[in-house]
Amino acid sequence: MTANRQMPTAAIRHDWTRQQVLDLFAMPFNDLLFTAQQVHRTHFDANRVQVSTLCSIKTGACPEDCAYCPQSARYDTGLEREKLMKVEKVLEEARAAKAGGATRFCMGAAWRSPKKKDMPYVTEMVRGVKALGLETCMTLGMLNDEQAKELADAGLDYYNHNLDTSPEYYGEIITTRTYQDRLETLDRVRTAGMKVCAGGIIGMGEGEQDRAGLLVQLANLPEHPESVPINMLVKVAGTPLEDERDLDPFEFIRCIAVARIVMPKSHVRLSAGREHMSDEMQALAFLAGANSIFYGEKLLTTPNPETNRDMQLFNRLGIQPEEYHQHADEAEAEAELSGRIAEQQQDPYFYNAVK
Ligand code: SAM
Ligand code: DTB
Ligand code: SF4
């Protein structure tokens, strides 16, 4: 079987069937990775990875029942609840993230949805973080139209809201909000003019059908999310998923590769779970088309690899952090990227299987 026969183009499609995506999952591993890497190289410089840093602006005591989450008030995970952080403290953390090399600052709150009284604070955070020259992202739960507009007006670049899994498996994981609720929030984010960050979690006991179902949902949105976080479940003691069985690492890598193929222009983020991944597994994820990470020693409440280890890994792999051209002319940025892609295609080892 050749990669060409399975996946002839890197075209942007919104009509994926579950069977087509399952067929991608079923490809021999080497064919799948080769195809994903080819698709990746038609839209990205393959040696650049976008770097985001997370900050938990409001921790714990969440009313929702997400079975994976250490922040749900329903599970005893020993987490100390914290009130909404002061704006100045958030900006301090953002400055440190920028100094450490991040280009995007992602602020997360353990809320079902923001309350009216919270909005002036979170919009102030957006303005302050933007003024530091960082891209901004927030994940605050479900939004109504007004809240989406307020965030967009404050200049928020990205809103993260994950679908988490397939529509069929979803009810095993969360009962306090529906899949449809999530799709509606994503729609409001898009309508308000923000970029969408939406992905899911792998390793929650779901099957390949569900992984395919999640990716079909994401790829068949009217526009692909610009950012697609693929999290590997972080098993936290006290949550219902604490004893979930370990996932075969190759199954996780397959997921990244299929996400890359079905959403060719999106940044696919190798998200939670890196702490438990070897350097070799992370290198495979980059080869499969992952081109973004969370950087910094903490995710929201759980550990992430030490920044030194990440920098060493980037060095060993010849990966450079993606730059952020604030206010740069889009055409100029595009031209620069095209130049880098053309350079990569001049490489004697480049073989264009996508043609
Ligand atoms: N409360 C908001 C919400 O759920 O929309 C925002 C914060 S919530 C922690 C953001 C995302 O983190 C979740 O949708 C889930 O995908 C991810 N997440 C939470 N706990 C996780 C875990 N233990 N392992 C992997 N991903 C996790
Ligand atoms: C996403 O998809 N993963 C991030 C971010 N979006 C907000 C969160 C991961 C959380 C992992 C568990 C924790 O640290 O609490
Ligand atoms: Fe709350 Fe978000 Fe955690 Fe669900 S994932 S329990 S909504 S913080």
UniProtKB/TrEMBL annotation:
<dbReference type="InterPro" id="IPR006638">
    <property type="entry name" value="Elp3/MiaA/NifB-like_rSAM"/>
</dbReference>
<keyword id="KW-0411">Iron-sulfur</keyword>
<comment type="pathway">
    <text>Cofactor biosynthesis; biotin biosynthesis; biotin from 7,8-diaminononanoate: step 2/2.</text>
</comment>
<feature type="binding site">
    <location>
        <position position="106"/>
    </location>
    <ligand>
        <name>[2Fe-2S] cluster</name>
    </ligand>
</feature>
<dbReference type="GO" id="GO:0004076">
    <property type="term" value="F:biotin synthase activity"/>
</dbReference>
<comment type="function">
    <text>Catalyzes the conversion of dethiobiotin (DTB) to biotin by the insertion of a sulfur atom into dethiobiotin via a radical-based mechanism.</text>
</comment>
<keyword id="KW-0004">4Fe-4S</keyword>
<dbReference type="InterPro" id="IPR002684">
    <property type="entry name" value="Biotin_synth/BioAB"/>
</dbReference>
<dbReference type="GO" id="GO:0005506">
    <property type="term" value="F:iron ion binding"/>
</dbReference>
<feature type="binding site">
    <location>
        <position position="69"/>
    </location>
    <ligand>
        <name>[4Fe-4S] cluster</name>
    </ligand>
</feature>
<dbReference type="InterPro" id="IPR024177">
    <property type="entry name" value="Biotin_synthase"/>
</dbReference>
<comment type="subunit">
    <text>Homodimer.</text>
</comment>
<dbReference type="InterPro" id="IPR058240">
    <property type="entry name" value="rSAM_sf"/>
</dbReference>
<dbReference type="InterPro" id="IPR007197">
    <property type="entry name" value="rSAM"/>
</dbReference>
<dbReference type="InterPro" id="IPR013785">
    <property type="entry name" value="Aldolase_TIM"/>
</dbReference>
<feature type="binding site">
    <location>
        <position position="62"/>
    </location>
    <ligand>
        <name>[4Fe-4S] cluster</name>
    </ligand>
</feature>
<keyword id="KW-0949">S-adenosyl-L-methionine</keyword>
<feature type="binding site">
    <location>
        <position position="197"/>
    </location>
    <ligand>
        <name>[2Fe-2S] cluster</name>
    </ligand>
</feature>
<dbReference type="GO" id="GO:0009102">
    <property type="term" value="P:biotin biosynthetic process"/>
</dbReference>
<dbReference type="GO" id="GO:0051539">
    <property type="term" value="F:4 iron, 4 sulfur cluster binding"/>
</dbReference>
<dbReference type="GO" id="GO:0051537">
    <property type="term" value="F:2 iron, 2 sulfur cluster binding"/>
</dbReference>
<dbReference type="InterPro" id="IPR010722">
    <property type="entry name" value="BATS_dom"/>
</dbReference>
<keyword id="KW-0001">2Fe-2S</keyword>
<feature type="binding site">
    <location>
        <position position="66"/>
    </location>
    <ligand>
        <name>[4Fe-4S] cluster</name>
    </ligand>
</feature>
<keyword id="KW-0808">Transferase</keyword>
<feature type="binding site">
    <location>
        <position position="137"/>
    </location>
    <ligand>
        <name>[2Fe-2S] cluster</name>
    </ligand>
</feature>
<keyword id="KW-0093">Biotin biosynthesis</keyword>
<feature type="domain" description="Radical SAM core">
    <location>
        <begin position="47"/>
        <end position="274"/>
    </location>
</feature>
<dbReference type="Pfam" id="PF06968">
    <property type="entry name" value="BATS"/>
</dbReference>
<dbReference type="Pfam" id="PF04055">
    <property type="entry name" value="Radical_SAM"/>
</dbReference>
<feature type="binding site">
    <location>
        <position position="269"/>
    </location>
    <ligand>
        <name>[2Fe-2S] cluster</name>
    </ligand>
</feature>
<keyword id="KW-0479">Metal-binding</keyword>
<keyword id="KW-0408">Iron</keyword>
<comment type="similarity">
    <text>Belongs to the radical SAM superfamily. Biotin synthase family.</text>
</comment>
<protein>
    <recommendedName>
        <fullName>Biotin synthase</fullName>
        <ecNumber>2.8.1.6</ecNumber>
    </recommendedName>
</protein>
